[in-house]
Specification:
The protein has about 375 residues and is α+β, with helices and mostly antiparallel strands. Helix content is about 50%, strand content about 20%. It has 2 domains: about 180 residues, PAS domain (Beta-Lactamase, 2-Layer Sandwich), CATH 3.30.450.20; about 150 residues, Reverse transcriptase/Diguanylate cyclase domain (Alpha-Beta Plaits), CATH 3.30.70.270. It is built from 10 helices and 13 strands. The two termini are about 35 Å apart.
C-alpha cells in the first residue's frame, strides 16, 4: 500500500474512531446517572442492613432486661429500668443516627412511645406519648414481624427510616425506629458526584490523548505525502519512486518512460514560465488517461515514468497509444499561444524479471532511446516501434 493511500485510510479511520468515541462517551455520560443511581441504592441498602442487624440485637437486649411480662407496665412502675434501657439503647446510636426510639401498640390500636434516646429534655418523648405514624410501613412491620426501611422527605431533605420489630413469641412487643441522618444520602451523593466527575475527566483526558495522537499521525502522513509530490507538476517524484515502489512493488506494473520532445526549444521560444505550464498541462492530460491504481512520476526535467497496474501487454500498448494521441492531436493553448507538443515513449512490460527498480527503468529507458532515434513522437517496446 502506498503512503498516499495510507494517508487517506488513516484520515478516514481516524475520523470514524473519533466519531465513534464521541458517541460512546456521550452514551456513557447519559447513562452514568442510571448506573450511579443503582449503585447509590445498593449502598443505602448495605448501610440500612448493617443498622437493621444492630437494632435486632438492641431488641433482644430490651427483651432480656424486661424479663417477660408487660414491658409497658414494668417501665411505668420502674423509671430506673426505663432510663437504663434508654441508656443501653443509646449505645447503638451513632453519628449517622439522628433519632432512635421504641414504640408499641396499645389496646386501642394507637402507637405510643416506649423508649426514646433523645438527650434534649424538650424534645424527648415521654412514656406512652402518642406516636403518629406518617407511613403504613409501621403497621406492616407490626403485622408481618419483618424489618424494613423507607425513604421520606423531612424538613426538605430525603431521610431513611429503619423499622425493626421486637418479637416475643408470636407477637410484636414493639418496634425499634431509627431515622438515619439525611447526611448519609447526601454523603453517598457527593461521593458519586466526585466519581462521576473523575470518570468525565478521565474520559476527557483519553479523548484529548487520542486526538493528539491522531493529529500527530495525520500530520506525519500529510508531511510524508507532501514530500512525495513534485510541486510543479503535482505528480509523484523520485523520492516516492525509490522509497515506495523500489521495494518490489514495481513488479506488479508495466513501465512507460515518457519524454517531452524538444522541450528545450519550447523554453527557448516561449520562456520557462510557459514551459512550466506546458508540463502541468501535459500531466493533467496524461492523468485523465490513467486509473486510480496507476502512478506517474516525474523522473527528471521533462522525463516521466508511468506505472500501469497490469500484466496485459496489449492493454499497456493501448494506453501508450491513447496518451500519444491525446497529446499530438490537440495543441496546448498556453496564455493564448498554441503550442504543438509531442512525446516519445519507451515501454517495459517485463518488469517481473528485473532484479531491481533501476534495471526495470533502464529497460524502459533503452526503448525510449529507440523511440527518439526513430525520429521522436514514437512508441518503442522491446526495440520495436509500435506506433
Amino acid at each position: 500500500m502506498t503512503v498516499t493511500r495510507q494517508f487517506d485510510r488513516v484520515l478516514k479511520i481516524g475520523i470514524f474512531l473519533l466519531g465513534l468515541l464521541t458517541v460512546v462517551m456521550f452514551y456513557l455520560y447519559i447513562h452514568v446517572d442510571d448506573v450511579l443511581k443503582s449503585t447509590r441504592e445498593d449502598m443505602v441498602h448495605t448501610i440500612v442492613q448493617r443498622y437493621e442487624m444492630f437494632f435486632e440485637n438492641a431488641g433482644k437486649m430490651i427483651l432480656d432486661k424486661a424479663d417477660g411480662g408487660n414491658i409497658v407496665e414494668k417501665l411505668r412502675k420502674n423509671p430506673l429500668l426505663k432510663r437504663e434501657l434508654e441508656r443501653d439503647l443509646g449505645y447503638f446510636k451513632t453519628p449517622e443516627v439522628d433519632n432512635l426510639f421504641v414504640i408499641y401498640k396499645d389496646a386501642k390500636g394507637h402507637y405510643r412511645y416506649l423508649l426514646d434516646t433523645e438527650s434534649d429534655p424538650s424534645k424527648k418523648a415521654m412514656l406512652s406519648q402518642r406516636f403518629e405514624p406518617v407511613s403504613p410501613v409501621w403497621e406492616s412491620v407490626y403485622q408481618s414481624h419483618l424489618k424494613t426501611f423507607y425513604q421520606h422527605v423531612k424538613q426538605g431533605k430525603l431521610w431513611v427510616t429503619v423499622a425493626v420489630p421486637i418479637v416475643r413469641g408470636e407477637h410484636a412487643a414493639g418496634i425499634i425506629g431509627a431515622d438515619l441522618s439525611a447526611s448519609i444520602q447526601s454523603d453517598i451523593e457527593s461521593r458519586f458526584v466526585k466519581i462521576k466527575w473523575i470518570m468525565i475527566v478521565i474520559a476527557s483526558i483519553i479523548l484529548m490523548l487520542l486526538v493528539f495522537a491522531y493529529t500527530q499521525i495525520y500530520y506525519y502522513f500529510k508531511g510524508r505525502k507532501t514530500s512525495f509530490f513534485d510541486p510543479l507538476t503535482e505528480v509523484y517524484n523520485r523520492k516516492f519512486l525509490y522509497e515506495v515502489l523500489a521495494n518490489g512493488e514495481y513488479r506488479h506494473y508495466h513501465l512507460i518512460i515518457l519524454d517531452l520532445d524538444h522541450f528545450k526549444k519550447i523554453n527557448d521560444t516561449y520562456g520557462h514560465d510557459i514551459g512550466d505550464k506546458v508540463l502541468r498541462t501535459l500531466m493533467r492530460r496524461i492523468r485523465k488517461q490513467l486509473r486510480e491504481e496507476d502512478y506517474i512520476v516525474r523522473f527528471g526535467g521533462e522525463e516521466f515514468v508511468i506505472f500501469l497496474k497490469t500484466n496485459d501487454e496489449e492493454e499497456t500498448k493501448h494506453v501508450a497509444r491513447r496518451i500519444k494521441h491525446t497529446i499530438e492531436n490537440s495543441p496546448f493553448v498556453i496564455d493564448d499561444k498554441k503550442i504543438a507538443v509531442t512525446v516519445s515513449m519507451g515501454v517495459n512490460t517485463d518488469t517481473a524479471n528485473a532484479s531491481n527498480l533501476d534495471e526495470a527503468i533502464d529497460m524502459a529507458d533503452k526503448n525510449l532511446y529507440c523511440a527518439k532515434e526513430a525520429g521522436r513522437n514514437r512508441i518503442c517496446i522491446d526495440g520495436e516501434i509500435i506506433y
